[in-house]
Each structure stands twice: as C-alpha cells, then as structure tokens.
Amino acid sequence: MKLFLIGVGMAVSAGAFAQTFYGPTPYLQHSDSPWFGMAGLQLEDAEDGSFDIVGAFCDYAFLSSSFVEGLIDSVDIDDGILNGTGQQGPAGVGDAFWNVSSMSIWFGINNVALPTHAGFVWTDGDNPIVFEAFDANGVSLGTLNGQHADNSYLGGTDEDRFYGVSYAGGISRITIGNPNGVEIDHIQVAGAAVPEPATMVGLGIALGCLAKRRRPARA
Ligand SMILES: [Ca+2]
Ligand SMILES: [Ca+2]
Ligand SMILES: [Ca+2]
Ligand SMILES: [Ca+2]
User: Fold this and answer.
1) Ligand number with the minimum distance to the CA of 90
2) Three-class SS state of 217
3) How far is the CA of 51 from the centre of ligand 1 (A)?
4) Which residues are in the CB-under-5-Å shell of ion ligand 4?
5) 118 torsion bin: left (phi>0), alpha (psi -120 to 50), beta (else)
6) Crossing angle, helix 197-207 and helix 210-218, to 10 degrees?
7) Which ligand is nearest to the CA of 157?
8) Are 204 and 1 in contact, with CB atoms under 8 Å apart?
C-alpha cells in the first residue's frame, strides 16, 4: 500500500511542472543571458579563480588560466572589451573552468534548496556538444545539442553559446559534454525550488492519514 501511494505521488510530480530549455544561443556578455536582471541571480565568471555559487559544486579539473594564455576561453567581456576574444583587453586575460570530455554542476550541497534556473556558457571544445539537466530525483529533464565549435582552441568567442534550463521542481545537476576538453564560463543560478508533491505525499504517509486528505485535492 505504501509503495502504491508513493507511486501516485511521483506521477503527480511528473505532471506538476514543465521544464524549459534555453539555448544554445550566442553569448558575449551577461546581458546576452535570458535571465539577465532576474532577482537573486548568482553569476560565477571564474575571474576570482574559484567557484563560489552557494550550494553548488563544479567538478572542473583546472582553471583555464592553468594553460598558456593563448588557450584560455573566457566569455568575451571578462577582459573588459568585446573584441572577439576573452584574452586581450584593458582588464587583462579572462578565466574559465576546464575538464576532459564533460563537466557537471551539482546543486543542493549543504542542504541549500535546489535552484529553479541553472545554466552556463560553453566557451570551448569540439563538436558534437550535448547539454543535459536532471530533476531532484536525478531523472533527466532532457538534452540540448550543439554544433558550434570553431575547430580552434585559441580563445575565439563567436562560437560561445549559453545553455540553460528552468524547472520549478528543482534542478539537481546540469552537465555538458563533448569530445576532448570542454570549457565553461558565466555559470548562472537562480530560484529556490518548493518541495515536490512526491515528497509531500511521502511525508503525509509518514505522519499518518494526511496523504489521504490531500489526494482528492490534487486529483
Ligand atoms: Ca571568465
Ligand atoms: Ca574581450
Ligand atoms: Ca570560445
Ligand atoms: Ca574553440
């Protein structure tokens, strides 16, 4: 009986929210983000040399500044000027995050609420490119596919693209992959997910008859 009720809760959860994917869209500066100006938005541009989104973990292997200058692929504006590169401007040389083949960002670290909006900018790698997002239960919300790499690792920004997802039920992970190295920048996170109906129904079961009272209202 208990298993049956939990199953009902998950079915409600699956139909309760709708995910929206964003991208891949050209991105040279923060105002190119679909969420630019959103209240409470956190932006990590890697320029301070650490990943500081609250409640999140990024499995990058190196900062791009670990490489020789010509191989850094920051978002264009981070060197202080829109000029087709993130490496040569009045603010100096930009920075980004790098790993082999794929990179993920996990949310909900230290019990921080899962975000409802999460995305970043792919800045370098090879085709084909795949972005994927996951809900609070680790179930895939879907994928985006890209073919915009410029076949150069020398910091060009015309190829850079934003990938993101919004989902009111909460996003537990976003990931991007492509052959060889992959580089991302301008990670953006906003919103705090409400508890999923599946969790609320499960809580009702634990407390006794509460779930029975809620089910007709949710049907
Ligand atoms: Ca940067
Ligand atoms: Ca620039
Ligand atoms: Ca690039
Ligand atoms: Ca490139």
Assistant:
1) 2
2) helix
3) 11
4) 124, 150, 152
5) beta
6) 150
7) 3
8) no
The bound ligand whose nearest atom lies closest to the alpha carbon of 126 is 4
Q: State the distance from the centre of ligand 2 to the C-alpha of 77, rounded, in angstroms.
A: 5
Q: What is the C-alpha separation between 126 and 10, in angstroms, rounded?
A: 38
Ligand closest to CA 180: 4
**For residue 70, how far is the Cα from the chain centroid?**
27
Phi, psi for 148 (deg, rounded to 5): -120, 5
pTM: 0.83
Distance from residue 194's CA to the centre of ligand 1 (Å):
31
pLDDT tens track of the chain, all 219 residues? 333 333 333 333 455 799 999 999 999 999 999 999 999 999 999 999 999 999 999 999 999 999 988 999 999 999 999 999 999 999 999 999 999 999 999 999 999 999 999 999 999 999 999 999 999 999 999 999 999 999 999 999 999 999 999 999 999 999 999 999 999 999 999 999 986 555 554 444 444 444 444 444 443
Return the closest-CA partner of residue 97 out of 132, 54, 149, 62: 62
Rg (CA), the chain: 20
Q: In DSSP terms, which residues pair with 171 in a beta bridge?
A: 135
- CA nearest neighbour of 55 among 103, 141, 115, 97: 115
Q: Which ligand has the minimum distance to the alpha carbon of residue 84? A: 2
Task: Sketch out the chain's domains with CATH numbers.
Answer: 18-195 (2.60.120)
Sequence-distant (≥ 6) Cβ neighbours of residue 58 within 8 angstroms = 51, 97, 103, 104, 105, 187
